[in-house]
Amino acid sequence: MKKYLHLVFVLLCKLNTFGQTEKPNIIFILTDDQRYDMLGCTGNDLIQTPHIDSIAAQGTLFTNAHVTSAICTPSRASIFLSQFERKHGVNFNSGTSVSNEAWEQAYPVVLRKHGYYTGYIGKNHVPVGKEGYQTGYMEQTFDYWYAGHKHLGFYPKGRHSIFKAANSDTQIEILDEGVTDFFSNEHKLEGAKHFIDERPSDKPFFLNICFNLPHDAGAGTMRMLETDPDIYKTLYRDLDIPLPKNYVEHEHIVTPKLPPSIHFAEEIQTGYSYTKKPDEVKERTIRQMQAVTGIDKLVGNLRATLKENNLDGNTIIIFSSDHGLFMGEYGLGGKSLCYEICTHVPLIVYNPIIKPKARGQKNDQLVQSIDIAPTILSYAGIEKPDSFQGKDLSFIINGKDKPVRDFLYTENLWSTQFGNPRCESVQDKTWKYIRYYKNENLRASAKIAAAKMLDIPMGEMLYKQHDPDIALYRTFIENPLKGEPAVYEELYNLKEDSGELKNIAGDAKYRLKLEEMRKIWAEKIKYARGEGNPKVYRYTKDSSLED
Ligand SMILES: [Ca+2]
């Protein structure tokens, strides 16, 4: 009997076509600036996301998932490397790129080394290799590449030549063409880069699909063109869009959320000034909802493609966002701070082979974006590199509920002319402590005034990185560990105050709790920093036109 079974197994293996292997195929969809509440399954009653909701209904929705840094570049680097920013050392203001040595341990590279056929479609916002975005190094570390570095815009053809031959004009539909091309294996899509002639039939695949939406760099450039799919023209426009809970109109701000001495809120990039006016917030909300519904449609197409190709029974789908976004809560716009609106993201994992009783679960354990890579490697049967700082979540997805960690740690090191202070946060399900440092950055308004006076190009003045910036960023990393004092602290009871409205750090009643949280912060920041020098290269190119 054993012999017979073995024969059947061998025959089955031989019958495998692309992706039908013993190891699961894995697809990871990452959206950009999508808040936790921008899905039907996370409680949004207005948005239509049936396909993503269906993945959640058949898999695991993590209801307490947080990123580690709430801004594109460091958050995405953290996901790739399973490291806190304080360890990997790459941000818009760091003047650095991920070194080849560090990238060797990025999870897609590890998957490829272990026999996975790997693809990357969409937006990349992590500079990798000696000349970062310029060299094409990152591209070559995937087998299939149909992506652009930095922002794509809503109409990517004009911004990235790789997409110029696409049939569609709109971002989501262009990326959908890439997904179709990846699965067809006919290499028909002009522009897409294939680094091997065709996919080996006996390999499992990994596909990363990364959007530049609902990010405002995408949604803000929507033009409701005649040629746009209807979703982006008419959907949600007949609804009465409510303002976010805790929204404060700019002119009605009485007490700023943070002291003006540490948070220069007026220096925010103009791209986020729409949060000042209620009508503009509603317009941007509609566009974001349209974009997310467009992404949902792509997810529906993807699942249909998996089914047609008989891959649906062995393909894990993961969905998350790189961080959240203020839409005028507390009178604020943008992101990067340690508040829930910035760090709390949707995280959904659907694995078709898990037991029925583990399907459709909502799990509130404390999980982080750095856990995605170890979870992927675990399902792929690959040991995680020692450099990883995240945890394998597969036991939860498989139906076993137990704590992953005692506290979440998040941080903001993107402290620049645009006014945000450096801060770190630790939290469990009830208590959250945030710690802020002196903000000595030169203000954007001063740079803009000087640029105007001397006719210096604004991009050079605001977005160029120089060697001294590298040194400054290193002090941001190291100084809190060397005793730099906090100049402001916040303590919230998340169970009673999920909106983080009432800072009780100064309340004598919570003195002991505050002291306890400070101790936990000291422990967690040390862990986040890790040991040794960061594995980065000097990369003092323009940081980006926007974050
Ligand atoms: Ca982002």
What does this structure look like?
- This protein has 547 residues and is α/β, with parallel strands linked by helices.
- It folds into 2 domains: 23-399, Alkaline Phosphatase, subunit A, CATH 3.40.720; 410-538, no CATH class.
- Helices cover 30% and strands 17% of the residues.
- It contains 17 helices and 18 strands.
- It has helices at residues 2-15, 50-58, 72-81, 85-88, 100-103, 107-113, 137-140, 171-184, 216-219, 278-308, 340-343, 372-379, 394-397, 444-454, 458-463, 467-478, 511-529, and strands at residues 25-32, 60-66, 96-98, 117-124, 144-149, 193-194, 205-214, 315-321, 326-327, 333-334, 344-350, 361-363, 367-368, 408-412, 423-427, 431-436, 488-493, 536-538.
- The strands form 4 sheets. Strands 1, 2, 4, 5, 6, 7, 8, 11, 12 and 13 form a 10-stranded mixed β-sheet that branches.
- Helix 8 (171-184) runs parallel beside helix 10.
- The radius of gyration is 23 Å and the shape is globular.
- The termini are far apart.
- It binds calcium ion (CA).
List the helices and strands and how they pair.
Layout: H1 2-15, E1 25-32, H2 50-58, E2 60-66, H3 72-81, H4 85-88, E3 96-98, H5 100-103, H6 107-113, E4 117-124, H7 137-140, E5 144-149, H8 171-184, E6 193-194, E7 205-214, H9 216-219, H10 278-308, E8 315-321, E9 326-327, E10 333-334, H11 340-343, E11 344-350, E12 361-363, E13 367-368, H12 372-379, H13 394-397, E14 408-412, E15 423-427, E16 431-436, H14 444-454, H15 458-463, H16 467-478, E17 488-493, H17 511-529, E18 536-538
Parallel strand pairs: 1-7, 1-8, 2-12, 2-13, 4-5, 4-7
Antiparallel strand pairs: 2-11, 3-18, 5-6, 8-11, 9-10, 14-15, 15-16, 16-17
The structure holds calcium ion.
Protein name: Sulfatase-like hydrolase/transferase
Pfam families: Sulfatase
Domain Sulfatase N-terminal: 24-382
